[in-house]
Amino acid sequence: MVRKVMIPDALLDRVTRGEAVVYPTSTQPALGCTPEADALDRLFEIKNRRSDAPVSLAVADLDQAKELVHVPEGVSALLDSFPAGSLTLVLPAHHTLDGRLGGDSVAVRVVTHPVACALLIETGPLTATSANFSGTPPHTNCDDAATALGLPHDAALAGHCPGGSPSTFIRLDDSAPLTHAEQLEVLREGVIPTTEVMSWSTSLI
Predict the structure, then answer these.
(1) Within 10 A of 191 (CB to CB), how many other CB atoms are there?
(2) Distance of CA 160 to the CA centre of its chain
(3) Which residues pair with 126 in a beta bridge?
(4) Cβ-Cβ contacts under 8 Å for 128 (sequence gap 6 or more)
(5) CB 174 within 8 A of CB 70
(6) Cα 15 from Cα 50, distance rounded (Å)
(7) What is the spatial distance between Cα 73 and Cα 77, in angstroms, rounded to a whole number?
(8) Closest Cα to residue 54, out of 102, 96, 95, 107?
(9) What's the alpha-carbon Rg for the chain, to the nearest Å?
(10) By the 8 A CB rule, do 56 and 107 touch?
């Protein structure tokens, strides 16, 4: 029997108030807040992040993603072809979002960590930027990551992440199904090498 993951009320209250929280993923701890202006103000201040450096969004599944972005045919096959949680997809937004989320093109990651999934089912999409200051090595423990960012203990979900490379960012052309390499562009190589992404794409021809 699979044990249901319970998210503490105090942490959910923080999310509702537009405060940032730290949660585990299959790579590194993520810093999450709701995709709303006030919450993004606080998150960008915490990270000392430039407003012209967009952050990605985490979703529990593609159905959640479809509420915000257009998901081209073939995306499920793409995600199923690589380790779960290893890809972040840049997709066209249904409506222009806050520029700090990318505006018309939004980076979306379907998380697989059971704790992250449980959180997102409760809250809806949250930002998924790494829980560390730019230029500093990320922690693998969520509590340590929250402390390093100056956040209180109740801002972190307990969890240890495997660490290593972050997810690979891929921009998708939404004009047609994923059938050839020209429709995929690797924006940031991470845990999945560019060569593997392009090899997958050309195998569909």
Answers:
(1) 17
(2) 17
(3) 58
(4) 25, 30, 32, 55, 56, 57, 58, 88, 109, 111
(5) yes
(6) 22
(7) 9
(8) 102
(9) 16
(10) yes
Collapsing DSSP states into helix, strand and coil, what is residue 92? strand
Question: What does the alpha-carbon distance between residue 26 and residue 105 come to, in Å, rounded to a whole number?
Answer: 24
In the block, which residue shows the tokens 């050839």? 180
Q: How far apart are CA 31 and CA 147, in angstroms?
A: 12
d(CA 32, CA 116): 10
Residue 42, token pair as written in the block: 């606080």
Instruction: Report d(CA 102, CA 79) in Å as an integer.
Output: 21
Give the model confidence (pLDDT) of 51-107 as tens digits: 999 999 999 999 999 999 999 888 998 999 999 888 999 999 999 999 999 999 999
Bridge partners (DSSP) listed for residue 185:
171
pTM over 0.85, yes/no:
yes
Q: Given this model, what pLDDT does residue 130 score?
A: 93
**Measured between alpha carbons, how far is 9 from 14 in angstroms, rounded to an integer?**
9
> Which position has the token pair 């249901």?
4
- Mean pLDDT, rounded, for 188-204: 86
